[in-house]
């Protein structure tokens, strides 16, 4: 009920969708997925925030880490790797409690 993307669907459809999903509660700093992991599911942020981080290794061998963006309640992530059957392109880390 708190995810805007499902607001256009009737209550019966939203209820059916919940049968294929599960809710999890994560603490601040918890890594949800890591860059390079296979894409096996997508995520919906119900509350809290999440940072997307990326690590690249330059030709010189130097490692670069950077922040891509912060996602907030109502956002989704992980769908591209799932749909395209590819590896994750970022690491997702909880910022605050509950996603």
UniProtKB/TrEMBL annotation:
Coiled coil: none annotated. It comes from the Eukaryota. CDD domains: CAP_ED (cd00038). InterPro entries: cNMP-bd_dom (IPR000595), cNMP-bd_dom_sf (IPR018490), RmlC-like_jellyroll (IPR014710). Residues 5-99 form the Cyclic nucleotide-binding domain. Pfam families: cNMP_binding (PF00027). This is KAPR-like protein. The lineage of its organism: Eukaryota, Metazoa, Spiralia, Lophotrochozoa, Mollusca.
């Amino acid at each position: 009920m708190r995810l805007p993307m499902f607001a256009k669907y009737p209550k019966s459809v939203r209820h059916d969708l919940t049968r294929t999903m599960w809710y999890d509660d994560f603490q601040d700093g918890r890594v949800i997925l890591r860059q390079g992991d296979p894409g096996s599911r997508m995520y919906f942020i119900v509350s809290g925030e999440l940072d997307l981080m990326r690590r690249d290794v330059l030709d010189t061998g130097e490692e670069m880490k950077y922040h891509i963006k912060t996602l907030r309640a109502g956002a989704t992530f992980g769908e591209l790797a799932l749909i395209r059957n590819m590896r994750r392109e970022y690491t997702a880390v909880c910022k605050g409690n509950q996603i």
